[in-house]
Amino acid sequence: MIRIFILFILLSGWIFRASAQDYAVERIPFALKSRAAAIVRHEHVLIDMKNDAHITEKVSRAITIMNKSGEEYSNIGLYYNKGKSIRKIEGVIYDEFGKPIGKFGTKDFSDYSASSQASLYDDVRVKHYTPSVHAYPYTIVYTYEIKHSQSLHIPYWNPNSIPNIAVENSTYQFTCKPEQELRIKEENIPSAVITEQTEKSKTYTWKADNLPARKQEPYSPIHSPDEIYVKIVPKKFYYFKKKGEINDWEDLGKWVYEELLKDKNDLPQATVEKAKEIASKYATDKEKAQALYAYMQQKTRYISIQVGIGGIEPFPASYVERLGYGDCKALVNYMYALLDAVGIPSHYCIVEAGNTKIDLDRDFANIVDGNHIILCIPLAGDTVWLECTNNKIPFGFLGNFTDDRLVLACTPEGGKLLHTPQYDAQNNLQVRQGKFVIDASGSVSGRLTTTFSGAQFGDRFPHTSLPPNELNKALKEDYNVDNILFEHVAYQMHDNNADLKITEDMDLRIKNYIVRNGDHMIIQPNIFNRTASIPETRNRTNKVYINRGYTDTDKFEFTLPNPIQGEVDPIDKTLTCPMGRFELKIIPEGDKINFSRILEVHDGTYPPEDYDKFFDFMREVSALDRGKFNIPLVSN
Amino acid sequence: MKALFVFSFLLLQTLAYSQVIHLPDISKNELLTQTFAIDTTANAVILLERGSTMIQKSDADMALMVFHRYGARTKIVNQEGYKHADYRIPLYTYGSTSEYIIDIKARTYNLAPDGSISTTSLKIKDIFTEKVSEYLKVTKFTLPDIRTASVIDVEYTVVSPDIFKFRTWAFQADIPKISSEYNAVIPAMFKYNVTLRGTLKVKDTKSKIYRECLNFNGAKMDCSDITYIMEDIPAFIEEEYMLAPKNYLSAIHFELEESTDPRGAVKKYTQEWADVDRELMSDKSFGGQLKEANFFKKVFPSEILSITDPYKKASEIYHFIQKHIRWNKYYGKYSQNGVKNSFENRSGNIADINLALTVALQAGGLEAYPVLVSTRDNIVPNTLYPVISEFNYLVCGVKIDGKILLADASEPLLSFGELPLRAINDRGRIIYSRKSSEWIPLVNPLPAETSYSFSGEYLKSGKIVGQLTVTSLGYDAFQKRQSILKYASKEEYEEKLDERLTNIRIKKLDLSNVEDNTFPLIETSVVEITVGDSITSGSFTINPIFVNRTTRNPFNLDDRTYPVDIGSRKAENHHISIRFPEDINLKSAPKSISLVLPDKAAQYIYKSSFENHVLTVDQQLALNKAIYNTDEYFHLKELFSRIIQQLKVDHLFTYTP
């Protein structure tokens, strides 16, 4: 008994003891220290798939925190829910010289709900630990085990996802039965996978060594081109009592439809009748859909509730009918059911939402991609997309939350990859016009009209539902000019089929905007739209990526209190670069100054060496935007 | 301290007194009314709100519990008001006992097309309770079938073991209320301090006595029954640069003052500061921690004890504790782990750290005391009488040369004698002994100050080359240190700085005292500035305030209701000197000006001169107060407006080749 006990101590202490001196900071290769806030000294992730419902994830990791900037990487946050339980957390902290200075275990972790403020309920919880170490650098070494009871969502390997962490070595191992069929996707792996097979098991091992921290540069592509990925999904999987087989997006879409959506369009008969009655007033499917969308918008509201199977199964239409609320899944399904009631087909679509455009992984079907649901109505020659979590937005408008990206439509015939509409520089417009009078004291007053369309429509549209005091505050942010006052602010929507616009009209007055200097007036004619310059980067390594293009036009006419004395040279400048175009015209004449400015920025990906051109362009634009005019006036 | 009130339960009996409030029946008119004179722009309006609090015997808990009954009828005016149908009710845990919620009833009323009133009730299965942490659970629900013009009724009861402090009744909220009524039924054996905060007046107070409401050990006891009514309560709107809304919200606060047991023995809770002082100093997790001087004597590095200059010694001890114990992000006026344990495990809450600092200073032979603080996001402490529960934080006051210096060792980059912004909230209470304490203003001795000094030369290529020195003091230095240390290395900080200042190229950057917070933070750099600010040809213009030029007004609101609190005095100075080639002449320059607000509350000076081909510009901005009243808001607005005007004017130079 005693012997076993001793052996046990030796064994459990072994993982730390054997390697203790290895954690001395001086052992870190010099090249890895550059730009690294923290360095993964050692990482080993073992996924042991016993069967569909029993997968063990064993992780051991040693990470050296170099200085205060790496502090956040010493935190351990382990999420869990019904399909995921955490076991056996233990760890040791080493000082700079590799001497142990502290230990921790499960009891040192705080446990709290991971649900966000925005969520009414979410069954995900987190265990969290922050070490208390004062002196840098130090190393935190820990191991833990997670039991997964589903096999659709197995942790991927992505060792260099954080740019300012360097990796000394990282290993990802996947073990399963020899007959287990897997789908595997590798990206940028530094060395080929090693496979071992015995009668009882097969094991895949991927390794990466000496991955330096990466430089973070502005306007970089969403995914760094050297990010390492291994994604594994079993062909046949088990997910919260549901089974399935997936080879591609078509299968995944079919599975979602069959297992999560089918029969969820259970509207009560009264609602079906109501939908039919609404639709009967309109001739075309599009008009019917628009009327039903309006009905859905006034009947429901968005409330986030994430319960049950990993947050991917919608509540049925009857649930939304009863409560008048639901999350994105439930509301899309409800809208689908309303359309279905009048015989208009539509598709439940999985999308990765956010201002940054992220596609689903085209050639690797998986359930991790996507975080939001929208509805697609495939009308003949005119596909309509619906965001169902907003009570206000116009029919068919997606905005910068889900525009221009690859989504999965889940249909009875299987999944289909579709692309949402794009707003580019030609239709992302802000067109501003103003006529202003400058009085003798230098105050400016006049009327300003601005029209927003494309994604810029979405920027301004929320203003229409603000109460007056909030609107005034918001406008003070939009037109952040000292001493500005707004009056008679009005918004008007124009919805000419696909061409959605909003116009803002207002009277404004800016006290003392123009500085008088004797008989001269110092005027900055570009009052509102001053572009900031962009950060400079030296030795650019990443490609240049512009997520969304736009065109802004500003045209103003200023009437001066007195005519201009003598001649003042007009300005006529045009700048171009691969990413954009800028045009500035200022014509002083008589008692008028006419100002016209157009800035176009084009979305796309450009070679790294073009960044300097973009930088120079934006710097010049920024300087011209702030240009001042010293105008001599005829004295009274 | 949180040991709860345990009376011998079996001897208690609540008599037939229970006033369960219910909301009145819904009227069609309430569903039809869509605009309210009190606020025509409100997204939702509370039509009526009723609360009652009573102390009663609870059979389920075998204890005397506080029953908070709440009921509200809310009109959802439009879709923006939908969020007022969401309820989140926090339930706290005190040691082994917890609050819990009972009798939740919620209904939504809508007007059906046929003119009848439809009612949809909240179902139990649509109520969620989430354990947020060891100390907090939140019951969450939202009402069903919400539409524009819906009216909702919500009623529930929170049962709480916390007899010391009732839940505060807030008359004012972020939406207007037509009426709010609060009723407190308190057995005569308890006496509470009742404070009404905020600017609004209570319309009516009704009080009566309930005879024999409680049977205590056979003795029948009366209860006082007081109702406070407020009507037409405007929404509370938060403004920038203000203290916690709690300070201005109209609300009633309760704090247990004394209790009398059936034998007539009176137990006082918080009445006089003398009582508080005695209680705190006898408490194991407060005064008890100050007995650990011997422990700290042993752990000090020997050189500390040999320092003779008291300031230097205090500063060294401060840094010793600051470096040694790490803050676990919990506030508190009571020690969580104990100072000894915190020191050994290098982790503790605010009280652990600053009590350790206090006792360590005492161990070093200095006069040091704990100072109770209520944080900035909490309430400004009541100065009429002690409300101990208002304090949630603790700092240390150390007496050097007859003056008290305040110190907080929880932030590794803070200088000795400085407080973090969170601890600056009106005044704190310094506890000298079991018998004496007094109020002490919580202010930082130094203003938050940044000085930019530039000396250089104008080159005909259109560039200015020279040396820029940025010196930060006080809170500015603290914040800057934090931002510098976010970068992995000095080089990366330099890179980012260079990227941010697009017209300025930083050629060489030296940082002094980034981690040594006993001295000012100094950033020295060789810079090259591209002057390209003008679009007129012939001559050229320069605006020498290259860095941090004021172009936007931080005080741009048209109305201001509450005082402006910027945390500390502030100062910003520019001293620029540029040498020009001999054939370049200054044609015009902005006028030198000096602006002063009444009582020197703020000051601005701009001076420009050109002598011997050297342009010298001095700019000084000083905000001499940490708190400005609402009138002064508009003075500040005007001051900044004038500064912006001033900085719009450039220096115009001519050049004749």
Give the tally of β-strands of chain B. Answer: 37
Helix run count of chain B: 10
CATH architecture of the largest domain in chain A: Sandwich
Largest sheet properties of chain B = 9 strands, mixed
Class inferred from helices and paired strands of chain A: alpha+beta
The CATH class name of the largest domain in chain A reads Mainly Beta
Number of domains of chain A: 3
Unreliably modeled segments of chain B? 1-11
Helix content of chain B: 10-25%
How many strand elements of chain A? Answer: 37
| Global geometry of chain B | globular
- State which percent range the strand residues of chain A make up: 35-45%
Provide a short characterization of the protein structure.
The complex is a heterodimer of chains A (636) and B (657). In chain A, helix 4 (269-280) crosses helix 5, helix 5 (285-299) crosses helix 7 and helix 6 crosses helix 7. Chain A contains ten helices and 37 strands.
Give a description of the structure.
The complex is a heterodimer of chains A (636) and B (657). Chain A is of the alpha+beta class and 636 residues long. Chain A is built from ten helices and 37 strands. In chain A, the strands form ten sheets. An eight-stranded mixed β-sheet of chain A has the order 5-4-9-2-1-10-13-12, with no helix packed on it. In chain A, strand 15 (236-239) and strand 16 form a beta hairpin. Chain A is globular, with a radius of gyration of 30 Å. Chain B is an alpha+beta fold and 657 residues long. Chain B has three domains: 13-268, Immunoglobulin-like; 273-441, C8orf32 fold (Roll), CATH 3.10.620.30; 448-655, Sandwich (Jelly Rolls). Helix content of chain B is 16%, strand content 41%. In chain B, the strands form eight sheets. In chain B, strands 1-14-15-12-2-3-10-6-7 form a nine-stranded mixed β-sheet. An eight-stranded mixed β-sheet of chain B has the order 27-28-26-25-31-35-34-33. Chain B has a five-stranded antiparallel β-sheet with strand order 22-21-20-23-24. In chain B, helix 3 packs across helix 7 and helix 6 (339-345) packs across helix 7. The chains are: A alpha+beta (636), B alpha+beta (657).
